[in-house]
Design goal:
GH (chains A, B), GH123_cat (chains A, B), homodimer, Glyco_hydro_123_N_2 (chains A, B)
Chain lengths: 585, 585
């Protein structure tokens, strides 16, 4: 599959074309990059007419191959009432179709009850450029495209595309999901998906949805501590709207509501310029305005921060605000110098006079502002991994400014500062000591796991096996931690709909959602895992309350057998399916 | 004298050397650029030993020529008590001197009274690079050095240089000035200047100072409206001190006190970024901080403006504050955008919505601030020449913001807006209609004249005849206007002590004072003219009060005969001397 070079050239041209003359980046409709693996006519020889089948949601079906894996005529999917369930259909044809479309029927269940077709969210699955995941934990540069194979991969679920031309010897997946209403009767709901070419029906697939008697609470009630970092700056750039304008907020709203409905708990706020040194295509600006007055004193304005927090809360994300970062990688803090009307910077490290002075001023002003807003108790001063002595010095400054400030860290496990961290997220390959975890829970502290570029698996890269996204929350349940953090919900690449690769890290590392509020198969599979985590939590509670159906012991056994190392050899789907079967029964 | 090319090369090298490694620009001691006109041995053949003589303050004696003009053994200078008087001595030698120095004695007068030597300000005259004045009024670029002849010219008066080596066949002028104490007895004060080479006395020159019975008031009481624009940014850059730091103010203080003692009335304040489009080597930053808040409203901070005004007032310049500019040449107004933490600009012209909005906000806030400070009545919103309709639109915005705002303009005479201008300065080649001038005076308005690059003569370029600087205030007296404006007191070139040329305009256009608070012969000659203006004013008053000594009619005749056009043929010194003789008698 060494076609990377060719692809880079193709992409290079396309990418340039899209931006020429400052045209808008596509939102509603777009053309994918060309498939560079051409269909093998021999493989397609035996395919008669147009074929339609259910596939598996674990699979990314290749565009130019005949789908083979996990096909079935009848699909039965089950879930708790309130749960979002999904199915994937595939359509393929030797001769192609001019105008493929699909329709979802109403689903009829017991006692004349119906899940109306409007309850479904569905879309053709689109293909995006991705480069291979490196399993060795190396996070380095990917500017030299010849070092990594690239491929077009199914990932984006596109509800805008109502009809699609299917080229000869091509496959078209369709992703169909449905949040089972909480208030319908348990039982089986039967419906179908009808496929058409223009006006002509080319086939239909039956679908049974089994609604369990259990009810999954609203996402806002989920306990799973989901922390996918949001990047408002990427949205402003992609939509070409002024940052923090009304249009900007409008563009973000559906995406952030989607994030809320996945159970997101945390608002990502930047309180310094480039808290992550501009590592993303769209770097983060400070939501706190830093200004130095002519008399040398500091002034801070929180208007943008307030606007962002209030906006996010209006989208349903209102449990926690994590503020990055007192220890940005560059330790250079930009501010507006009112004396010279220029942007300057304080270049100083924790423990140094200039650092401690400006941060003490900022944190005192910030604490007072947060208290006025009633947000002090849900706000944390958030850090990424830094040397322990640097973090300890930063912690000293925080405590001096206000001893009640909460602190977050996403980093390695450091026992010496653990007790100072309210929200502590460690890498998935580490473990909190059991007694620490227990104590943290009893103190109301949050303990979670993260993956980033360093973890070849499990992960949520564009080319990660889809089931790994589901596997992660199950692992969190097994480890008894509170949730999962990933550093990028939407730190988009330049043209994420076309190319999910970035100059660093494996493709897809930087985002889980596409422009136009398009979900990804990865994101949907993560939600599946989060829902399973919630179900396990509820079942564990029922067990503690003596309502055990015998299922819990089975479940705990299956969870206890989850091993990261096993993923090197055994697809995550095996372990995931095993647990899902237990949950279903 | 076509040596420009050579000189540019020499200067190029020197200039670079001075800045290499961010060395400091010289303040206390420095080496001049080399003289490129070599002495003519034949001319010097007849010069025996070291020669010393009084010269004339009208003359710039060449470094490598035998001084010939206006030499005298005894110099008598006269002035009113309180007046600053000056003399110029010249020392020249065929064989050179190793360590030339001079000493000024106490000056003994009637009734045992003394003008102590400490009352004198004196210094060797230094040579600076200058290019020729263009008489055609063309203000264009001088980047092509081959278009203008350059020469080293005597201008800077250097009190730091206590001993000087005089090269063989070189001339060294010495400038000596003295403010005659107001409280000494009228009469003749006799003293001398002794010249030494190391410890050896090489000669002495007698000097008589005749103190008139008249008393010239303190410069702060002078009526002459002197408006030389100050550039604090040039000082910060040259002294390599942070702008508006304590060191910056300390560096400016002696220069601004010198300016105050020349009768300066106006504080030059910049309220926009680059009010003159960065035309000077050091452009002006806004002393008002412009900020736009996240809700779209404007915020202005006047801390720097206040600091500057208070500093200037502490230097003795406190009559007026001129604020530039609502109509800068680029009509682009920079501000700090608090939403994005970036510097942005409003690009809008008078009459447009964005312009009117931001200026109405600024002017209202400014008026309120000025009133709080008690400065509203001495503050003007100041403009340079712009098309009349543009100025009228700006005036409309000013009047809307606060109808009592005073307005200044330095530009052509526009009868249609004249009555809206409190401080109106027109070019020296124009005239206010006599009735307008009279009315303006009766209304307490200020009417002055200016010269800039466009006036070949009279002017104060490094190569302008020195007497022109004196001629200008006399002409103002003749025209019955209130004073004189020049746009640059200290908009220094990169290394003004070495080279007074600039990329535009004739050399010396951009400054009248040198780093280290060194005065120039031009500036001293201007002061001489300003003092004459004050004396004329006082004599006219005396005449009106019946104390006419017969001198006034003579004076008015001489003043009435001043014609700019005559300067093309007849040196200004002739007319100046004629008037000075009348004033003396």
């Amino acid at each position: 599959m060494k076609k990377s070079f060719l692809l880079s050239v193709v992409f290079g041209l396309m990418g340039t074309a899209v931006l020429a003359g400052q045209e808008k980046f596509p939102v509603e409709s777009y053309e994918e990059l060309p498939q560079f693996v051409k269909p093998d006519a021999k493989e397609w020889e035996s395919v008669k007419g147009t074929r339609i089948s259910w596939g598996s949601t674990h699979e990314r079906y290749a565009k130019t191959s005949v789908p083979m894996k996990n096909l079935s005529r009848l699909q039965g999917i089950s879930g708790w009432r309130g749960e979002k369930v999904a199915a994937q259909a595939v359509v393929w044809s030797r001769d192609g179709l001019e105008e493929l479309s699909f329709e979802i029927s109403d689903f009829k269940g017991p006692k004349g009850q119906v899940i109306p077709s409007g309850q479904f969210e569905a879309g053709f699955v689109r293909y995006v450029m991705a480069d291979e995941v490196r399993k060795d934990g190396n996070c380095g540069s990917r500017e030299d495209r010849s070092l990594f194979d690239s491929t077009m991969v199914a990932d984006c679920i596109d509800p805008y595309l109502k009809t699609a031309a299917l080229a000869p010897m091509n496959t078209m997946p369709v992703w169909i999901s449905c949040r089972i209403p909480q208030d319908i009767a348990p039982g089986t709901y039967k419906g179908k998906v009808i496929f058409k070419d223009g006006e002509r029906t080319v086939g239909a697939l039956d679908l049974n949805i089994l609604a369990d008697s259990h009810v999954l609470p609203e996402p806002s009630q989920w306990h799973f501590h989901l922390d996918l970092w949001q990047n408002p700056y990427a949205v402003a750039r992609y939509y070409q709207v002024p940052v923090w304008s009304r249009e900007h907020l409008e563009a973000m709203r559906p995406m952030m509501e989607r994030l809320a409905s996945a159970g997101q708990k945390v608002i990502t706020a930047s309180i310094t310029h480039k808290p992550w040194n501009g590592q993303t295509y769209d770097w983060f600006e400070s939501m706190v305005t830093w200004m130095k007055k002519a008399d040398g004193s500091w002034a801070f304005c929180f208007d943008v921060f307030d606007m962002w927090v209030e906006f996010m809360m209006s989208c349903g994300i209102d449990r926690q605000i994590n503020c990055y970062s007192m220890v940005p990688w560059s330790l250079s803090f930009k501010y507006f110098d009112m004396t010279t009307n220029t942007i300057k910077s304080v270049d100083s490290a924790p423990g140094e006079k200039a650092y401690d002075e400006v941060w003490t001023c900022l944190l005192k002003a910030f604490a007072s502002h947060l208290k006025e807003k009633g947000w002090f108790d849900i706000c944390t001063i958030a850090m990424d991994e830094r040397p322990a002595e640097v973090m300890q010095k930063a912690l000293n400054v925080i405590k001096k400014a206000d001893p009640d400030f909460k602190v977050s860290l996403a980093g390695n496990y450091h026992p010496e500062i653990e007790d100072q961290l309210y929200d502590y997220c460690i890498t998935i390959n580490e473990n909190f000591p059991e007694d620490v975890l227990e104590r943290r829970r009893s103190e109301g502290r949050i303990s979670t796991l993260y993956t980033c570029c360093a973890e070849g698996y499990p992960n949520t890269f564009t080319l990660s096996p889809l089931a790994e996204a589901t596997w992660i929350p199950l692992y969190a349940a097994a480890k008894n931690v509170d949730g999962y953090l990933r550093w990028a919900f939407n730190s988009w690449t330049r043209e994420p709909l076309l190319d999910s690769r970035f100059r660093t890290w494996a493709a897809g590392d930087t985002f889980l959602i596409y422009p136009g509020n398009r979900s990804s198969m990865r994101f949907e599979k993560l939600i599946e895992g989060i829902q399973a985590y919630e179900k396990i939590r509820i079942l564990r509670n029922e067990c503690r309350n003596g309502k055990d159906t015998g299922k819990t012991a089975q479940l705990e056994d299956a969870l206890a057998s989850l091993r990261i190392a096993d993923l090197a050899e055994t697809p995550a789907s095996i372990a995931v399916d095993k647990i899902m079967v237990i949950l279903k029964n």
